[in-house]
Every structure is written in C-alpha cells, then in structure tokens.
Amino acid sequence: PPSYHERRSRQVTQAATIARLEAELKAERDKCVERRRYREQAVTTQGQLMEQAKQIAKLT
Description:
By secondary structure, this protein is mainly α. Helices cover about 95% and strands about 0% of the residues. It has one helix and no strands. The chain has one helix at about 5-60. The protein is rod-shaped.
C-alpha cells in the first residue's frame, strides 16, 4: 500500500489540479459574462442609433 507520504503527495497534487481547473472554469465564465455584457451594450447602442435615425428622418 502507498505510504502516508505518497498519499499526502497525491492529495496535494489533486488539490492543485482541482484549483487550477476551477480557476480556468471561472476565467471562462467571466469571459462569457463579459461577452454577454458587450453584446447587450451593442444591442442598446444599435437601438439608440435606430431611434436617432428615425428622429433625423422626421426632420428631413
């Protein structure tokens, strides 16, 4: 059977791997949130531009 030291070493390695994967997952999630915010902002801006275009069309 593996010694205490071997088991402990494996636990530390697994913990480090889990921490790294969780960090990668969080980074991906943050990127998705950022993209969604950017998209929502783009939609809002597009809506405002359309509204301005309508106002300008009324003036001409």
